[in-house]
Structure formats: structure tokens, C-alpha cells
Amino acid sequence: MSKKQQLFFLITITLLASCGTQRRLSQTVQKNQELKEYILKSNATLSDLQKQASEQNRHSIADSVLSDTIHHIIQKLREKLDKMGESVSAVELLTEKRSNFRGRNFYTSTVSLINRLDSFQTASGGRDRVYQLLSEAVNAAAFHKFDMGTFFEPGAYKIPLTAVDKIYQPFKPAIDSMMRRSNNYSDIPHKIYMIFVGYADASPVISSGPLYAELKKYLPSGTQPGREALNLTLSRLRANELQRNMKLIIAENASQFHNSNFLDIGYMSYGRGEAFPLKNITDYRVEDERRRVVVFYWSVLPVVE
Amino acid sequence: MKQKGLNKKRVNASLAVLWIGALPLIAFMFYGWMWPPHDKPEFRGFLSGSKRVFVDQLLLSRKDLQLGDRVNLININLSKEMNHPVEKQDSFMKASAGKKQVYSKILQSKLKKASYKQHQYPDGFIVKPLPLK
User: Fold this and answer.
1) Bigger pLDDT: A77 or B84?
2) DSSP string of A276-305, one letter each residue
3) Which of A43, A170, A287, A293: disulfide with B127, CB 3.0–4.6 Å?
4) Which are the contacts of A1, defined by CB distance < 8 A and separation ≥ 6?
5) Looking at the predicted structure, is the pLDDT value of residue B68 above 50?
6) Out of A152, A157, A281, closest to residue B131 by CB
7) Among the listed residues A273, A268, A266, the one whose alpha carbon sits nearest the alpha carbon of residue A218
8) Is the pLDDT of residue B7 over 60?
9) Who's near B64: CB < 8 A, 6+ residues apart?
10) pLDDT tens track for B91-128
């Protein structure tokens, strides 16, 4: 090979290598810019959702458990975005020096960060679906406080097995909505939350009656429980009873949920004793049917690892 | 012997008198057994259509008597009546007709409430829309 040919070969190789480096660099800059915009946009979306959720919680429309869960999910998504933001900043620094995209430097340090950006970008479809589901959940009226309540007669908390159908029929619209929402998001991991909040009025429980003896079983032994403690227990039992029946109903209709691999169902029940169930009602009485109620909330939320 | 015969006659007469007195009593008891008081027309009017109404549902509470927490007041009144039973008796008799009316009204409302509750919560609970007010 003549000297001319050798020179030509070297120039060609250098040019080709230079073109490759330039291509890598420009591609990375573009990718970085796109991701920066995406992170900004996502952060704004999450801020809006958090604001909405806080607003509903402040006005006591939403259940606090669901509200906390939503905040927790938003927090996790933010943390993920922040981590990615750090990677984006690191790559931005690397793009300032061409040598980082050349030869050995590129394969030892730069490529791993770029791969991270790539995988984040590839997963953006699923992430958008997560945001979509979260947005639907937050925008739903007070995280789906069901407009039907289960009212109990004074001192009662049991729901007979024969009366399950009397719950199923009025709760069917809520169950259908849950199924529809869950099936629409069968491509991403999600969880159905069902929350049962029990209440009791301020009627006294006669200490010689059977209800007193029954409620006392659930309280620490050796104590003389007061009216409030007894009513708190009664409210818990009411919530538990409705939850137990709802579990039976959902189990019977389980086949209607698609892709059970991505679906989790979480039940929760708690009692609020003599607290007032609805903030919009101001004329509650001591003995009041409107206070002997179990309020039901539901939501379908994404599962964020 | 003469004295013995006399005694026998007197005994038989006494027995006859006793039986004459006892028979209406037995008849009255039998009537009472066959037709207990709550089946009488004035009670039947209240109780018809109130199946499964228990006695404890018909017991009066302070609220029914509209006495609030003034239990002491009842005790004071009772002790007064105990101290002066004769003086109070006339006024009590006069007021008894009015009281009867009041109690029958309370009983009616109690029965109505008890029947309504059973109708409202056939299984101890009911699912219905949450109140707006």
C-alpha cells in the first residue's frame, strides 16, 4: 500500500469515527432534551393531581385512607422522576465534552447512563397509563364515595347471610364501575381499594343488656367501657360486617375481572364511633338513623413499585 | 245424733252457698282464659298489624314522657303522694280519665314506631341513598 493510500485510509477511518461520535452525541442531546421536557410535564401533572387530592381531603369529602394512598403513589412517582432527572443532568454534563462519546470513554461510562435513559423512554407508554389511571381516580367524585349508605337499626350490626342479595342489588352499580375501570387498565398492575367506614349514633348502651356484653368482648377485659368506646366498637363491627359481605359478593363475581395477574383487591374497614358521617349535615341528633351508617368508598389505583 | 243431723244440714247448705259463689267465679275465670284482655276490641285496635312487637318496645322511656333528665321530679312527686295519699286520691281519680287518654296515645305511638322500625329494617339494616341534609 502506497503512502497516499495509507493516508487516504486513515482520513477515511478518522472521518467515519468522527461521524459516529457526532451522531451519538447529537442523538443523546436530543434524547436528553425530550426527557427533560417529559419530566417537567410529568412533574406538573403530578403536582396538579396532588393539589386536587389535597383539596378533596381538606374538605373532608374523600376518605383519608384513599387520600393518603394517592399521595403515597404520587410521592413514589415523583421520586422516580427525580432519579431520572439526576441521570438526565449527568448525561447533560457528559455531552459538554465530545471525548465522552468517543471510543473507550463512551463504552465505559457514558453508555450505561444512556441505556438508563433509553429504558425510561421505552417505558413511557406504561407510565402514561399509570398517570391516566391516577388522574381518573383523583378526578372521580371524592374518590368514589358511593352514594348509597348501609343504615342499621339501633344497636344492630349483623347482616344475615340470607340478606346478601339485598346488598348486592344496590351496590351493583359501584361493583360494575369498579370492574369496568379495572378491565380498562388490565395492561398495568393496579389495585382496587374498597374502604368501609362505620358510624354509630350517641345512644347509650344499657350495661345489663346483651349488646353491652357482646361489645365488651371486643374491648380490653377488666375495664368498664364508656358509651363512646362501646359505640366505637359498634361502628367497627358494622363496617366489618359490610366488608365481609362485600368480599363474598366480589368472590362470586371474580370471573368478570380480566387479567387477574395484574389485579389486586384490598379491603379495609374501620369505625369512627360517634363522629358525624357527613359534613354537609349539621343537625345530627343524639339518636339518629343518619349516624348509624356505613359509608363505602372505592378506587382503582396503579401499583407503583 | 240430733245435733249431728243439724250439723249435716248446715254443712250442706254452706256447701251449696259456697258453690253458688264459686260457679260465677269459675265462669269468669274461664271467660278470662278464653278471651284474654288484649283480645278485647279496644286493645285489638292497637295491636292489629303489629306482629312481633315485644314488651320492651312498649316500655316507656323518659323521652316518651317528655321528662328529659328530670328523674328527681318523679321521685319528689312519688314521695309527696306517699306522704299524703288521702289528699291526693281525689285529684288522682279526677285525673285518671285524662291520664288514660294520654297513656293510650303513648301506646298507640309506641306501637306505630315499633311496627315502623320492623318495616324499615326487616333484616336489621337497609341500604338507601345517603342523606343530603
Assistant:
1) A77
2) -S-TT-----SS-GGGSEEEEEEEEEE---
3) A170
4) A9
5) no
6) A281
7) A273
8) yes
9) B106, B109, B110
10) 555 566 777 777 777 777 777 666 666 667 888 899 99
- pLDDT beyond 70 at A95: yes
Q: Give the pLDDT confidence score for residue B1 in this predicted structure.
A: 44
User: What is the Cα–Cα distance from A170 to A147, expressed in whole angstroms?
Assistant: 10
Find chain B residues with C-beta within 8 A of A280's C-beta.
132-133
| Segment A34-44, tens digit of pLDDT | 999 999 999 99
Task: Give the span between the Cα atoms of A95 and A91, in whole angstroms.
Answer: 6
Residue range B49-67: mean pLDDT, rounded? 59
Q: Which residue of A has its CA nearest to B126?
A: A151
Cα B7 from chain centre: 46
Which residues partner with A300 through β-bridges? A192
Nearest chain B residue (CA) to A153: B124
> What confidence tens digit (pLDDT) does each residue in A57-75 have?
766 566 788 888 989 999 9
Cβ–Cβ gap B131/A278 under 8 Å? yes
CA–CA separation, A155 and B124 (whole Å): 9
The shortest C-alpha distance from A280 to chain B (Å) reads: 7
Residues in A closer than 8 angstroms to B125, CB to CB, are 150-153, 156, 159, 163
SS3 content of chain A, % helix, strand, coil (to 5): 65, 10, 25
The set of cell numbers assigned to A229 is: 368506646
pLDDT for res B107? 75
Restricting to A residues 140-199, those with a Cβ less than 8 Å away from any Cβ of B are: 147-153, 156-160, 162-163, 166-167, 170-171
Cβ(A277)–Cβ(A291) below 8 Å? yes
Specify the residue for cell string 286493645: B43
Question: How many beta-carbon pairs below 8 A join chains A and B?
Answer: 56
Are A150 and B127 within 8 A, CB to CB?
Answer: yes
CA distance A157 to chain B (A): 7
Burial group, residue A144, by CB count within 10 angstroms (0-12, 13-18, 19+): buried
For residue B129, give the nearest of A148, A158, A277 by CB distance. Answer: A148
Q: Residue A270: which pLDDT band, with cuts at 50, 70 and 90?
A: very high
All three cell numbers of A261, joined, read 395477574
DSSP per-residue letters across A137-174: HHHSGGGTB-SEEEEE-TT-----GGGHHHHHHHHHHH
